[in-house]
Design brief:
With about 700 residues, this protein is mainly β. Helices cover about 10% and strands about 55% of the residues.
Length: about 700
């Protein structure tokens, strides 16, 4: 607690010291400052140029970041900064087309603390072109090759960017028909009681959004507003009869903020408001209305210029308030919460390669320190945190990073107050009866959730680029321990049901028909993971000197190795080793291969994923004949795109070529129609793992047409 409080006092102490020791100004005849536009405070671990961004085949910047997150295996979305700086609301820029980007930088692990965010989150820096304008439209249709359901979606948006002034307006709509059990013959044959039920719900969505940024005097302004409506319908077997359930969710959001300089600090202030109404009729009747607001204040400044570079200070504060009113079958309840979270951090350059003889030998070394205080209106939710990290670059091609953090994290608003809604039916294996059953999963918030204490440590190394292909590699080891951990209900085994009997709903005959899957507190969750990756950018086709090459292929291979994955429900129960099958079914190895290429007007994207076998034990600590043995699974996706008609191509100031012709994409998801499969421990086929039980869609074909107008 003392350390965290000292970090919040440092700005006052150091600012006063700097002002007292300030030297008299020196006037120079001429100063020429050369810097890279949009560069971040830290050298990137990896950088994507215009060609690599184009190869991803994304529709907007948000999709680009999603692809990067998948390649990195991130468990939570990265913190997005724009042109090397934090902005009030980065969502204002994520809807722009990818050719509004001049480059994208993936920063090292400790950048989250450097920019005042969660030290466990990665940071992505998007660098925009100085000027951009477009009107884009898209239409998409998809359908499984086995038939039964189809999806239609349209999207239109107008984007405008000039330095710090942006304007974007967009609308989108989509419709998906339901997939019924009788449209998959194997499902009804193996589970006759599912006839008339729904395997996938029918959905309809519509949304509109408006965002703009500008200036007001010396301050930059930001404004975002959006509206969304989603409806769904599904049928399920309840008490021997088919029951229709309808759900609808309406969401209105508005946010605004300003950023600028005050008293030597770079300051950002923002307000967010969200109104959500959820309605359900069928298996249970419910109406829930949620109003929430968040106020953010963040600031950073250079405290002092050290020989190795500037020492930076960041301060962040966030206050949130939420209220939920629920009417469930005539029974009304009201719940509210308030939370305050404050963070502070220091970035200390220890030595620099440009510092002289010492720096030339040791390269660059940067250390980050941070503290955190939080308060929630729930007993036991007050907490503190501390984090430390380093980034060492002995040479331009080799980088080493380390990060340690410990913090008390309160449950999110959704984890506590999201409305209790039943989802579409699922097929699960009931260990108690030894048969496959259809259940309704209950999702939503748990108001009684307690805060969790999490300690994490990671160390990583990366190298590259090397050679003509720009080969880069990385390896990271991460260890996480959470006590009073907020997590999902473990696998549906007898041990789990004995620990949480109220979470399993059975009828008078003992048949399982619903499972409460809302988040719970577990005594401890611990995991150790080793991740590695390799990327290369292979040029295609020859080109005359001074002219751009015709194409390239970006290859990315990543591997995740779970070294340990354990959980403890409570003291009187044994430890669950999830890798061995206790309360789990967790694969030890996962491997992905991504190839994104373009040659002339043709583009291709290949995505292959493999996971190793896993096991779900019936009894904790021992294998048995009634266990579930999950088979390895490999899925492959392929997308091919081309421009059918072309107009005069334009070159932006960032050197990007943009083609306004009609673009067609043919995408095949799950190319080889692979499905999850399992056997029992005695080698017999496992109930609930027929061809269409776990994945009734299988191979899906998607056709997309888009054009710039």
């Amino acid at each position: 607690m003392v350390i965290a409080q000292m970090l919040f006092c440092l700005p006052l102490i150091l600012t006063s010291s700097v002002q007292a020791e300030a030297l008299a100004p020196v006037q120079l005849d001429e100063v020429v400052v050369v810097g890279r536009r949009g560069a971040a405070r830290l050298a990137p671990e990896r950088e994507l140029g215009t060609e690599e961004i184009d190869n991803l085949g994304a529709y907007d910047i948000g999709q680009v970041i999603n692809r990067i997150s998948e390649n990195l295996g991130l468990q939570q979305p990265p913190l997005v900064i724009v042109n090397g700086r934090r902005v009030v609301d980065p969502r204002n820029f994520l809807g722009f087309p990818p050719d509004a980007l001049s480059r994208l930088e993936i920063l090292p692990q400790q950048a989250g603390a450097t920019y005042g965010g969660d030290p466990t989150r990665r940071v992505v820096n998007i660098v925009l072109v100085p000027e951009f304008r477009s009107r884009d439209g898209l239409a998409r249709a998809s359908r499984p090759t086995a038939g039964g359901t189809s999806t239609l979606a349209v999207d239109a948006r107008q984007s405008q960017l000039k330095e710090t002034d942006t304007l974007q307006f967009g609308v989108e709509a989509g419709r998906t028909t339901s997939l019924r059990a009788d449209e998959r013959s194997g499902v009804v044959r193996d589970n006759p009681e599912r006839e008339g039920g729904t395997l996938r719900p029918a959905t309809q969505t519509a949304a509109a959004n408006l965002s703009m940024t500008g200036t007001l005097g010396d301050w930059a302004t930001s404004l975002t507003a959006s509206a969304q409506e989603q409806r769904s319908r599904f049928s399920s077997q309840v008490a021997g009869s088919v029951l229709d359930t309808r759900q609808a969710t309406s969401i209105l959001t508005a946010s605004g903020g300003v950023s600028g300089s005050a008293y030597g600090w770079s300051v950002r202030m923002g307000l967010d408001a969200v109104a959500i109404e959820s309605r359900q009729n069928g298996v249970s009747d419910l109406t829930a209305r949620n109003l929430s607001g968040v106020a953010n204040l963040s600031a950073d400044r250079t405290l002092v210029d050290l020989p190795a570079g500037p020492m930076l200070m960041t301060v962040d504060a966030q206050y949130s308030h939420a209220r939920t009113d629920t009417d469930a079958s005539g029974q009304e309840t009201a719940q509210s919460s308030q939370a305050l979270d404050m963070r502070s951090g220091l970035t200390l350059p220890i030595w620099s390669a440009q510092q002289g003889e010492r720096g030339g030998v040791w390269g660059d070394l940067l250390v980050t320190l941070g503290g955190r205080l939080s308060r929630l209106d729930t007993a036991g939710a007050d907490g503190q945190g501390f984090n430390a990290g380093f980034a060492w670059t002995p040479s331009g091609r080799y980088r080493f990073t380390g990060q340690w953090s410990r913090a008390t994290d309160a449950p999110t608003r959704d984890q506590r107050f999201a409305p209790a809604l039943y989802g579409a039916p699922q097929t699960v294996y009931d260990f108690r009866s030894g048969e496959a059953v259809e259940i309704l999963p209950l999702t939503g918030g748990s108001p009684d959730l307690r805060a969790q204490d999490t300690q994490s440590a990671s160390i990583g190394a990366s190298a590259g680029p090397f050679g003509r292909w720009g080969v880069q590699g990385n390896v990271d080891l991460q260890s996480t321990r959470s006590t009073d951990a907020i997590g999902a209900l473990p696998a549906l085994t007898p041990a789990t049901e004995a620990a949480f009997p109220n979470r399993f709903l059975r009828d008078a005959t003992g048949r399982l028909f619903a499972v409460d899957q809302r988040a719970i507190n577990l005594q401890e969750i611990a995991s150790d993971t080793l991740s590695s990756g390799l990327t290369a950018n292979i040029p295609l086709g020859g080109a005359a000197p001074g002219s751009p090459r015709r194409g390239s292929v970006q290859v990315s291979i990543s591997h995740t190795w779970r070294l340990a994955d354990r959980l403890i429900i409570r003291d009187d129960l044994p430890t669950f080793d999830r890798l061995s099958g206790d309360g789990g079914g967790v694969s030890r190895h996962q491997l992905t291969l991504k190839m994104d290429g373009r040659f002339g007007r043709w583009g291709a994207n290949l995505n292959a994923a493999w996971r190793s076998s896993a096991r779900i034990r019936r009894d904790v600590g021992q294998d048995g004949p009634q266990d579930l043995a999950l088979s390895p699974l490999t899925t492959v996706g392929l997308k091919i795109s081309t421009v059918l008609e072309t107009k005069q191509a334009e070159t932006t100031e960032a050197g990007r070529r943009r083609n306004d012709g009609l673009r067609l994409e043919l995408e095949i998801e799950n190319l080889f129609d692979a499905r999850p499969d399992a056997t029992l421990g005695n080698g017999l086929p496992a109930p609930g793992y027929g061809r269409d039980d776990q994945d009734p869609l299988g191979r899906t074909v998607r056709l997309t047409a888009s054009r710039r107008f």
